[in-house]
Amino acid sequence: MKRALANRALVSRAPRFVVKIGSSSLTNPNGTLNRDRLDSLSETLANAYDRNQRFALVSSGAVAAGVGHLGIASRPSDMSGLQAAAMVGQPHLMKEYAERFARRSIGIGQVLLTADDVIRRSHYRNARLALEKLFQLGIIPIVNENDAVATSELRLGDNDRLAALIAHLINADFLLLLTDVDGLYSGPPSEPGSRPIRFVGDMSELQNYSITGRGSAFGTGGMSTKVTAARMATAFGIPTIVTSADNLGAALEGEAVGTWFAATGNKSNARALWIAHAAQTSGQVRLDSGAVAALESGGNSLLAVGITDVVGTFDPGDPIDIIGPGGDLVAKGLAGWDSESLREAAGRSGVGRAAVHVDDMVLLRH
Ligand SMILES: Nc1ncnc2c1ncn2[C@@H]1O[C@H](COP(=O)(O)OP(=O)(O)O)[C@@H](O)[C@H]1O
Ligand SMILES: N[C@@H](CCC(=O)OP(=O)(O)O)C(=O)O
User: Where do the domains of the chain lie?
Assistant: First the structure.
């Protein structure tokens, strides 16, 4: 794996990056798409393109574009309303980008993905090859979550974590998350006393801050999904910058705007990081202490015999929490069984395949 960018000065020369712009920056106060923002964003990114930098743009804004075109009073709050608005809005959003980049003779391609597409090995190879082809052709991939088909378990909702997964997929030199605040603060920026955090060298520093999932009027996930995205990307060896959309030009010049999360790891297993950080779990299994010891000694799958209780409803492949006898979260994993069958098998030995296979599990206390 290539060496991580050590500092900001290198950003302006980095050959490849991912930039994500959130709903908060692309939406007018009445819920419609902010076209002035699209102008400045496209202009600044086209300048980077002309300096020979290549990037994938992860753009929200489909719902906002849909609100305008449907002529509805405000952004829907229910899932099917959001999906419908996104389905109407996505082609308009792409048209807006296509026109702006065409003025600079730059082509764009639409990439709609679910988290599953970037995690499942067979899918992610395809996604990677397709994106590489676009880069070879000099086309800018514009990525959004495929809101029409994303189910609640696989739906990210926010685009921050999708951007981190894309950064891994295309081997980006850095990830830039643009939002409506100029960076991470020690607490919600509206609260008096919150101060800007300029540098995060180690994710454990975040324990001292109050980072909420409550976002702006139109955003999803608040700062907490951005921090999760930074956690994932930096573990992949990709430094992450969080700043405001107004600061895009300065950030790409390598100026010290926003918050810089230094690369901490060199991991290549996107699936494991997805299980640990991004997947919303559908249920829980509770274990006896022997099973916890077996998992934590390493290399062992979870067997039904060590399970004392099964909570919730899930299908094989769904993410679940793996809880110790004291109620502590020991691991996360993808279920090998559906919840009903597992409930019947719990506590019994010799009942076939693993309840959670070791390759589908991430220990969280190590
Ligand atoms: N510690 C914090 N530092 C900065 N912003 C925070 C913090 N905690 C919560 N936030 C909120 O996160 C919001 C940005 O997230 P969100 O609305 O989801 O934006 P986007 O649509 O750009 O993804 C900010 O408007 C801010 O109010
Ligand atoms: N896929 C949705 C965006 C979801 C969303 O709001 O995400 P974010 O901008 O990260 O808060 C859309 O295009 O409107």
Answer: 8-275, 281-363
- Alpha-carbon span 112 to 117, nearest angstrom: 9
Ligand 2 pocket residue status of 146, Cβ below 6 Å = no
Q: Is 224 flagged in the annotation as binding?
A: yes
Q: Give the number of the atom of ligand 1 that is nearest the alpha carbon of residue 185.
A: 3
Q: Report whether 288 belongs to an annotated binding site.
A: no
**Average pLDDT over the chain, rounded to an integer:** 91
Question: Ligand 1: which of 37, 175, 180 to mutate, judged by most atoms within 8 Å of the beta carbon?
Answer: 180
Looking at the chain, the number of H-run helices and the number of E-run strands are 12, 13
What is the spatial distance between Cα 332 and Cα 356, in angstroms, rounded to a whole number? 9
Which comes out higher in pLDDT, residue 214 or 184? Answer: 184
Name the pTM for this structure. Answer: 0.86
Distance 317 CA to ligand 2 centre (A): 25
β-strands 240-244, 259-261: how paired? antiparallel
Q: Which atom of ligand 1 is nearest to the CA of 197?
A: 3
Q: What number is the ipTM of this complex? A: 0.96
Q: List the CATH code of the domain at 281-363.
A: 2.30.130.10
Q: Which residue from 113, 110, 69, 112 is spatially nearest to 89, judged by alpha carbons? A: 69
Please give the CATH number for the structural domain made up of 8-275: 3.40.1160.10
Helix 62-70 and helix 79-102, axial crossing angle in degrees, nearest 10:
100
174-179 vs 140-145, strand pairing mode: unpaired
